[in-house]
Amino acid sequence: MKQNKRIEKSTVVHFHQDARFFVERGLRFLNRYDYDKAIRSFRRAIELEPKNAEYQCHLASVLAEVGNFEASNDILYDVLEKCEPKIVEVYFYMANNYANLEDYEMAEEMAIRYLQQQSDGAYREDAEELLDYIYFELDMPPRHFLTGEREDVYSKHERARRSLEEGRFLEALDILKEIVEADPSFMPAWNNLSLAYYYVGDFQQAMATIEETLEREHGNLHALCNLAVLLSHHNRAKELVALINMLKKVVPYHPEHAYKLATTMGVLGQHEEAYRLYAKMLKSGRTHEACTYHYAAISAYMSGHKEQAIRWWQKVKQLDPESGVAEHYMEMVKEAKDGQTKQVIPYHYYQPQQEVSWEKAPASGVEELKNDPMIRASLLWALQHGRDEVKFAVLQTLALIGDDEAEAAVRQCYHQTDDPQLQKLALLALADMGAEMPEARPKRKAKTKAATEHKLEFPGSETDSQKTEGVEDCINRFFSGSGQEDMKNWCLSVWKRFSQLEKPPVQVRKIVAWVAALEYLYGAVKNQKHAQSQAKVAEKYELSPSTVAKCVKALQTLDLK
């Protein structure tokens, strides 16, 4: 028996627990979501091989998973400084950690470093999405610009955003139109484009741009908020009420979204809802600008929370003592008697006594006119929608301002109006600015019956009778000219095959969009030398490029060769 025990002892094999053993063990724990044991295993592996960058990254990943982002970044910094500085992916991991810590400047820094060193890396799209979120969802201007294809988009959009803030709306409009034409997937530009149209008083284009934005991204909160304001302007009460009820159910994840939603609710007169959102946002502990506290105070006052309104205006006074805004409104609130009808306060950050009346502004007040975005917006609105005498006053005021933006607005008025008196005043305003005179406009011919009928035949203009047509009817009507027989027959054949599919086609409001898509595909497949771009075809049919693209994508499920 003793001999057997000796044999057993001599056959025991020593179990060697090296660093790889602990890493594999840690990965098994990680797969079972046992983070504590995974962390212990990875730490043991690092004790055995302290210079192994892979093991360090495993530990950093688990620490980030449990929300310990600072500790994770400490390890990642060690990887770069002491272990393996060539592991570029570390910059992307650190960017995510900083984003979770809401240190977006450092998140931007690390994402840029990753893209600069590995522009075609595995995390490229994720890094670019993070930058898009920082720049445009959070409305933080970029401090660095990427080299390569994205540089123009970021820098142009930042320039457009500044132009909007400073009241150069026509300039912003031109830049934003360039951006969405060059990169239709760039959603922040669509949101600001709708605002630019709104500020210059082109409500029809503002609405069309919002619809285009929502067609591309159905739940875009900025677009939905802009739509609500526009519906309010047009007094479309039924649609507005439905949209407000929907927006009230939104729970914004990030403070910037909460700010947009709160301000929109305030502008729409939903002060109690605005107050709830502002109160939640201001409790987060983040730093906020004076205007945010001012808007929150307005919502508090308008919804009956007088004492809280005063407290928030006191905060405004601390942050911006020179403006006098807080003192004015605190005095107004304190003097208001109980039961007295509340004076409506607009959600703008200025003191009412400091407003400039552009209709009566002397030459000495020109600098204030130039530098106040709200006044510039009111000038452009009035030039579009005001009475004749108001338009005359606006032209005189724009002549006083005399900068590039004012000149562009006057030229636009000259080319758009049919009123000879207004044209004459526009020319005088340009002369006062010392601007170059525009070419004489050709006189418009009266519309004859034939001309009217010809216009009705244009593809994008659908009459009531044409809206009832099917796609085949439209193909026959649009492609009935000489030399179009082959295209007509090809389009009819493709549409017949497509309409026979079991899966229903995508929902497109305009029948003519299918015709436009078929014409584009015919050029791409059968007539490549003279093929047109989707944007050109969309312009011809007076459709949005995204609508044509949607139809093209659906039709391409067929074998079109």
UniProtKB/TrEMBL annotation:
It comes from the Bacteria. This is Uncharacterized protein. InterPro entries: ARM-like (IPR011989), CellSynth/LPSAsmb/PSIAsmb (IPR051012), TPR-like_helical_dom_sf (IPR011990), TPR_rpt (IPR019734). Pfam families: TPR_16 (PF13432), TPR_19 (PF14559). Transmembrane segments: none annotated. Gene3D superfamilies: Leucine-rich Repeat Variant, Tetratricopeptide repeat domain. PROSITE patterns: TPR, TPR_REGION. The keyword Repeat applies. TPR repeats lie at residues 19-52, 187-220. Keywords: Repeat, TPR repeat. The keyword Membrane does not apply.
